[in-house]
Amino acid sequence: MASPVFSSSLLILVLFPFTASLLFCNAFPVLHYPLHHYRHPRFAHHNYRDALTKSILFFEGQRSGKLPPNQRITWRRDSGLSDGAAMHVDLVGGYYDAGDNVKFGFPMAFTTTMLSWSVIEFGGLMKGELQNAKEAIRWATDYLLKATAHPDTIYVQVGDANRDHACWERPEDMDTPRSVFKIDRNSPGSDVAAETAAALAAASLVFRRTDPTYSRLLVWRAIRVFEFADRYRGAYSNGLKKEVCPFYCSYSGYQDELLWGAAWLHKATKNPTYLNYIQVNGQTLGADETDNTFGWDNKHVGARILLSKAFLVQKVQSLHDYKGHADNFICSLIPGTPSSSAQYTPGGLLFKMSDGNMQYATSTSFLLVTYAKYLTQAHKIVNCGGAIITPKRLRIIAKKQVDYLLGDNPLRMSYMVGYGARYPRRIHHRGSSLPSIAVHPAKIQCSSGFSIMHSQSPNPNILVGAVVGGPDQHDRFPDQRSDYEQSEPATYINAPLVGALAYLAHSFGQL
C-alpha cells in the first residue's frame, strides 16, 4: 500500500496524450451509460478462464524470497533473502502486499484466507489452474508458519514502511531497513493473530487430501495462534501504530477477526469447542451488527456468510441467526429494497471508498456466488422486505461486478493488467514500473526511481493479472502511476476474485 505522500503530485501531473480520450469519457460518463447498455448476463463475452489464469499468475509477481525454477513472471528476481535477520529469525518468503516492498502480515493473512476459501468452494471447477492456486496459497502459508514459529509471538511486518515509501526502487535493490515488528503477550494483536489463525485453518482444508501432513501442521498452528489471539486481546495497531498506520491500521477492531477465526477453526476441526465459542461470544463480537463491509480489515460479513453455511447445509440449528445476518447483507446490496444501502457508480460498480475500492467489488462478488451456492444447496432464497431474491439473482449481480472489472464500463477499460486490449499501463508498482534486472543489471538507487514514477511512460514490465484500485465514484480512471488510490494493485483485491472467476468460467463452459 502506498504512502499518502504522493497524493499532492496529482495536482501537478499532466495527463499523457493518449488518455485524452479518457478525459472526454470522464466529462460525460454518467447518464449516457445506463446499466442496460452492457451485455445481458445470460451471455458470456468475457474469457473468464483467461482472467482466472491471470488472476492467479499475479501472485508470482508479488513473491518475496528465493524464487523457484518454475517462476513464470520472469522479470522478477530473488529479494528479501535476509528478512528476519534483524531478530534472528527466518522470515524469508511471503508476499509484498501491493506496489511497495514491505511485507505486511495482516493483509497477507487475509489474502491467504480468501485464496483458500476460493479453492475450498470452487477449486473443483478450476481444473488446470487448481495447482497454481494451491502454490499461491502455499507460498503464503510457508511464510506464515515461519512468522508463528514461536509461541505467543507473531512477526507481523518486515520492512520500515515509512522508509520504504520514501524510495522508489525494485524489491531486488531495496536497501531500506528490513526492520521486523512483532506482537506478543505484552503488545497483543488479536486482529492480525486471529486472521492468521483463519488463514492457517482455511489453508489446512485446501491441503487435507493432497498433503495431509502439511494440513495437520497448519491446523495445529492455527489452534495455537487462535488461543494466543483470544487470550491476549488488543488491536495490533495500538502497540505498532507508527509502523502500521496509516497503511494497515485495524480500524474495525479485533472482534470481527476473533469471530472469523473461530468460524474457520470450527470448519477445519469440527471441534465443538469453537461452535460453543461462537455461540457464547457471537453477539459481543459483533455478529448481529449492520456493518456490511468486507475486506482486509473488516470480516463481519464474511463471518456471517461462512457461518450461515453451517446452518443452511450442515443444519447446525444454533447458528440460525447467521442466515438472517447474511440475508441482511444481501438486501443491503439490492437497489429498491427497504434496506438497500449500497452505493454504485453510474456505470454500476459497487463503490465504498476511494482508496482501493475494487477490493470491495471482488470480495462482494465472491460472497455473492458463495452464498448463492449455499442457498441452492439448502433450497432457500432471500426475502428483502417482500422482494424475493433468488440465488440466480445473486449470481447475476456478481457477474455484473466482474464484467465491469473486465471491461464492461464507461471507459471500456479492463482493470486487470494484461486482460483485454485496454488496461492500465502505469500502475503504481515499483517492480513493474522500473526496468528489470535483465534489462538494467545495475542497482537503481532509492530516490533515482522517482523520475520514472512521475513520468508518463508505460510500465516496462507487465504485471499480468494485477487488479488495480479502480475508478472513482464517477467511473473515472486517469491511469496515473502516482495515484496509488486508483492505480495500485494488491493481493487482497485478487484473492477473492480467483473464486468468482472460477465459478464464472465453469458456468459458461470455459473450464
Structural class: mainly alpha
How far apart, in Å, are the first and last alpha carbons? 33 Å
Strand order of the largest sheet: 1-2-3
Mean pLDDT: 91
Q: Helicity range of the residues?
A: 40-55%
Query: How large is the radius of gyration?
Result: 22 Å
Estimated share of beta-strand residues: under 5%
Domain tally? 1
Topology order in helix (H) and strand (E) letters: HHEHHEHEHHHHHHHHHEEHHHHH
User: Any idea of the CATH class?
Assistant: Mainly Alpha
Largest sheet: 3 strands, antiparallel
> With helices defined by DSSP (H or I, 4 residues minimum), what is the helix count?
19
Q: What is the β-strand count?
A: 5
Keywords:
511 residues; mainly alpha; three-stranded antiparallel sheet; two-stranded antiparallel ribbon; 19 helices; 5 strands; 44% helix; disordered N terminus
Lay out the secondary structure.
Blueprint: H1 20-27, H2 48-61, E1 103-104, H3 105-122, H4 130-147, E2 153-158, H5 161-165, E3 180-184, H6 190-206, H7 212-231, H8 236-239, H9 241-244, H10 255-269, H11 272-281, H12 300-312, H13 320-333, H14 358-378, E4 382-384, E5 387-389, H15 391-406, H16 430-433, H17 450-453, H18 484-487, H19 491-507
Antiparallel strand pairs: 1-2, 2-3, 4-5
Structural features, described:
InterPro entries: 6-hairpin_glycosidase_sf (IPR008928), 6hp_glycosidase-like_sf (IPR012341), Glyco_hydro_9 (IPR001701), Glyco_hydro_9_Asp/Glu_AS (IPR033126), Glyco_hydro_9_His_AS (IPR018221). Keywords: Carbohydrate metabolism, Cellulose degradation, Glycosidase, Hydrolase, Polysaccharide degradation, Signal. This is Endoglucanase. Pfam families: Glyco_hydro_9. Residues 1-21 form the signal peptide. The protein is mainly alpha-helical. The protein has one domain (4-15, 35-507): Alpha/alpha barrel (Glycosyltransferase), CATH 1.50.10. The chain has 19 helices and 5 strands. The strands form 2 sheets. It has a 3-stranded antiparallel beta sheet. The protein has a two-stranded antiparallel ribbon with strand order 4-5. A hairpin with a 2-residue loop joins β4 and β5 (387-389). It is globular and about 65 Å long. Residues 2-42 have low confidence and may be disordered.
